[in-house]
From TrEMBL:
It comes from the Bacteria. This is GNAT family N-acetyltransferase. The lineage of its organism: Bacteria, Pseudomonadati, Pseudomonadota, Alphaproteobacteria, Hyphomicrobiales. Keywords: Acyltransferase, Transferase. It comes from Neorhizobium phenanthreniclasticum. InterPro entries: Acyl_CoA_acyltransferase, GNAT_dom, Rv0428c-like_C, YpeA/RimI_acetyltransf. Residues 121-259 form the N-acetyltransferase domain. Signal peptide: none annotated. CDD domains: NAT_SF (cd04301). SUPFAM superfamilies: Acyl-CoA N-acyltransferases (Nat). Coiled coil: none annotated. PROSITE patterns: GNAT. Gene3D superfamilies: 3.40.630.30.
Length: 259
């Protein structure tokens, strides 16, 4: 089964993919035809290190183009990954399947109409513009290595649309929740949303997400979007409570044993 389907709203997919690229920019982006080749040497994020084909009909010279990309990824010390959205050529996906690639993760892209959303009248949390403080909080909440700080600083500093960094910090426990909201014209993307494991099911995630979405609406956004791994049942339940619904999904593919 392909990530694409006859029911896919391809214009919406193209628009959400474009704002997604701007909301989480890779350090290096080159195009091979309509295939976007994204690489970021300092950060292992799959979204920042993958091929994203953006035209269902662009599948010429697949083997040669995949080999060119493999060598480029190898120079970065990265495995070659294909990100399959509904814009990916089915012929390409059939080819990599037959060649021994496997799909290892599915991500749902969700949207909600902000104009119809019931949100609190006030912001429980005000957005910050302190990138360094947000990075420290995000790494602490996610339990990730402080060694990623320079790469995260580069990524966040490269975001061009207006952004709000939302954090809850406890004097005794440090950072307990974070969210990044990137407003791109009438679309607002929720990125890096996380609650520390010890503070889940306390309503903190609802508060932070409500503040980010209300800020986005006040700032002129009419629709919000986010991406969540399809097996993350807890996060999906929270997003459904807010009215988020699935717009499409994408999948990651790689071939074990190859760079």
């Amino acid at each position: 089964m392909q990530a694409s389907s006859p029911q896919s709203n391809l214009p919406l997919v193209r628009r959400l993919e474009a704002v997604g690229f701007r909301a989480w920019p890779a350090a290096s982006v080159v195009y091979d035809g309509s295939w976007q080749v994204r690489l970021t040497g300092g950060h292992p994020s799959k979204r920042l290190n993958c091929i994203v084909p953006l035209d269902p009909s662009d599948h010429r010279d697949m083997e040669q183009r995949l080999e060119r990309a493999r060598k480029r990824f190898e120079s970065y010390g990265r495995p070659l990954i294909v990100r399959e959205t509904p814009l990916a050529p089915p012929v390409l996906i059939d080819h990599i399947k037959a060649d021994g690639w496997r799909m290892f993760e599915t991500v749902d892209v969700l949207t909600v109409d902000l104009t119809a959303l019931a949100l609190p009248d006030t912001l429980d949390y005000l957005p910050s513009h302190d990138i360094g403080r947000f990075i420290d909080a995000s790494l602490a909440v996610e339990g990730e290595s402080i060694a990623l700080k320079p790469a995260l600083a580069e990524i966040l500093s490269a975001i061009k649309p207006p952004s709000g960094f939302f954090m809850k910090e406890d004097p005794a426990n440090g950072a307990v929740a974070v969210a990044l909201c990137v407003q791109d014209n009438d679309l607002a993307g929720i990125m890096s949303f996380a609650v520390a494991e010890a503070h889940r099911r306390e309503g903190i995630g609802t508060q932070i997400l409500s503040s980010a979405l209300r800020w986005a609406r006040i700032s002129g956004a009419r629709q919000a979007w986010l991406q969540v791994v399809s097996t993350n049942a807890t996060a999906l339940a929270l997003y459904r409570k807010f009215g988020f619904r699935k717009a499409y999904e994408y999948r990651y593919w790689w071939r074990e044993g190859r760079g």
